[in-house]
Design brief:
Length: about 600
């Protein structure tokens, strides 16, 4: 028995080292287990302290979605004035902890998700363990005291920190570290949303504006599934929202979904512009004068005063979203929530307090969609029969437009509703929002695609060589050639009279049949006994050539594969029109690297 176990363990280790898919299978599972535990602890902390601070202390009875009613009990004495007191105190605590222990995290971007994106592109996938620990703790305080922030940003940073930590402990390469960072983020998102596929795809696509990290799909999916499964052991498999089934059955609704996309795009533009205006034109200027802690205290105070007078703006707001889906919120209130939530989130996250922009974005998007759905239902009840579905479509479409991540949120909504009945309008509205809002972005450290990322600098260089053509670098003109029947004796005189090292070889029909490299003839070059016996055709290699329209990457591969220093360039009729050397290609390669480096600076 012991021998069998030992053999099995040796096979596992051997497979881990030699088979990449097995390696990512094991690493994805490990990251998923740890990120799932982190997500469960984070979620439980939020739910417990939210009940303590907002229900027991402040006396508020905020709605909770059906899948998240963990703590029950009668609300305490109504003390709304405690809300600004608590949010201000959290601002002070957050400012002190960040200034004292992780000052480098001050400029981490929009939120925890953006910090994860920054670590992927600019820091080689390295996240200091203290950063997600402090940001996670302060996010719990921010959200549970009423700050307008979501838990998805912090948990993606926490999960990414788990993946980065494991990679560092195993001494993995920078590339592998980045992939595990995304796998950890996928695990956190898949668990906290109870949407394993949506969480995985969101993590690998949100880092780019127009691309996704294909190499991370396997570990990200594994991590998300394992994390989700572990999370549901603690909190069950029920979706977040307790809502009826929605389906798209009437093509006459398409114009209204197009209108929804227009409204969500406008709301997204307002959401992003307001956030960055308050962050950079207000809070950053204040921070330079009075410091980070005082600035966060001002942000917390402003948020608290807003929340005290308008409770719908407090925390993530999923309970209010469920009410909107079920038709329990008036249209005028939805409009007020869109504006108020944008301001509240900008004050909370824009001042530097911890939390995510994901949930507030879904909240604003859902209300924007509900605005269209319930207004259309009011005037066209025969066509728009399920206005609550517009709230769900608005959530995905809005986030697709502001975060340039259409696939993950779309699948998340399908997983939240446990069906694909709204898939067609989801795709239509998300695509329109993506196009309309293509010039704005919620996350500051997103890059266009892989070839704009420092993480893929080598890939970028190869891509540049693929855009360069031989016609721009070869030397046109007559190239000295040899006849196949040229003797070794005649070859000796030809080589002595030229500095050329590579000769195209032709037959008696003037056809290009091979290449003679001087180094190939060197061993017999001065053998007098062979001077009339050995011919050029005996020494020549098989023909290798390039055409003017070939790219330089093809040329590079030919040089590396043939060990030739120069290759003839031929036209469509196979006539030699010039040559290109290995040095020409390497110089183009070097220039490409230098240019990329200058652009990065």
């Amino acid at each position: 028995m012991v021998g069998r176990f030992a053999r099995f363990w040796r096979d596992v280790i051997r497979s881990y080292r030699k088979i990449s898919s097995v390696r990512w299978l094991i690493l994805g599972i490990v990251v998923g287990l740890l990120s799932g535990l982190a997500a469960a602890a984070f979620f439980a902390g939020i739910e417990f302290f939210k009940h303590l601070f907002l229900s027991s202390w402040a006396g508020l009875s905020l709605p909770a979605p059906a899948g998240e009613r963990l703590f029950h009990g009668q609300a305490g004495t109504y003390r709304p004035w405690l809300i600004p007191v608590m949010t201000t105190a959290v601002g002070i605590v957050t400012g002190f902890l960040i200034s004292r222990f992780i000052p480098d995290a001050i400029d981490g971007g929009t939120d925890g998700t953006d910090s994860m994106i920054k670590a992927f592109h600019r820091h080689g996938g390295v996240i200091r363990p203290l950063v997600p620990i402090i940001r996670g703790f302060t996010s719990i305080l921010t959200i549970t005291t009423g700050g307008s922030a979501g838990r998805e940003g912090p948990i993606s940073q926490i999960g990414a920190g788990v993946g980065s930590w494991i990679a560092q402990k195993l001494n993995l390469s920078a590339k592998e570290r980045r992939i595990l960072l995304l796998a950890g983020a996928a695990g956190g998102l898949g668990a906290i949303f109870r949407a394993p596929m949506g969480g995985a795809l969101t993590a690998i696509e949100v880092i780019y504006l127009e691309d996704f990290e294909a190499e991370a799909i396997l570990p990200a999916v594994l991590s998300s599934v394992v994390s989700y499964s572990l999370f549901t052991l603690f909190f069950g498999t029920d979706p977040i929202f307790g809502i009826p089934h929605f389906s798209f059955q009437n093509a006459g609704e398409l114009p209204f979904y197009i209108l929804l996309a227009l409204v969500c795009s406008a709301a997204g533009w307002f959401y992003i512009k307001t956030f960055f205006f308050l962050k950079y034109s207000f809070f950053n200027r204040i921070r330079k004068k009075i410091g980070l802690t005082a600035t966060m205290a001002i942000g917390g105070l402003g948020m608290g005063l807003l929340g005290m007078s308008f409770p719908e703006l407090l925390t993530g707001g999923y309970g209010w979203l469920e009410k909107a889906i079920n038709g329990e919120i008036a249209i005028t209130v939805m409009l007020a929530i869109i504006v108020g939530k944008t301001l509240a989130t900008s004050m909370t996250i824009g001042s530097g307090m911890s939390g995510g922009m994901f949930a507030p974005a879904l909240f604003v998007g859902g209300m924007s969609g509900g605005l269209v759905g319930y207004a259309a239902h009011e005037y066209f009840p025969q066509i728009v029969t399920q206005p609550g579905g517009y709230v769900l479509v608005g959530m995905a479409a809005f986030f697709a437009g502001v975060a340039n991540a259409p696939i993950g949120p779309l699948l998340m909504v399908c997983e939240l509703t446990q069906g694909y009945g709204l898939l067609a309008p989801l795709m239509l509205a998300s695509a329109l929002c993506l196009v309309i809002n293509r010039k704005i972005a919620l996350y500051e450290y997103q890059v266009g695609n892989k070839f704009e990322s420092p993480a893929h600098l080598n890939d970028s260089t190869i891509n540049i060589l693929e855009t360069m053509q031989v016609r721009d670098f070869y030397r046109p003109g007559v190239v000295p050639t040899l006849e196949e029947g040229t003797t070794l004796k005649a070859l000796t005189h030809i080589i002595a009279g030229t500095d050329q090292l590579y000769f195209p070889v032709k037959n008696d029909k003037d056809q290009f049949t091979g290449i003679l490299a001087v180094q190939d003839a060197r061993q017999v070059l001065f053998e007098e006994s062979l001077s009339e016996l050995v011919l050029v055709q005996d020494l020549a290699r098989k023909p290798d050539y390039l055409r003017p329209d070939y790219d330089l990457y093809t040329a590079l591969i030919k040089f590396l594969g043939s060990d030739l220093g120069e290759i003839p360039v031929v036209d469509l009729d196979f006539h030699i029109i010039g040559s290109i050397s290995r040095a020409d290609v390497f110089k183009a390669y070097s220039d490409a690297i230098k240019q990329l480096g200058q652009e990065e600076e």
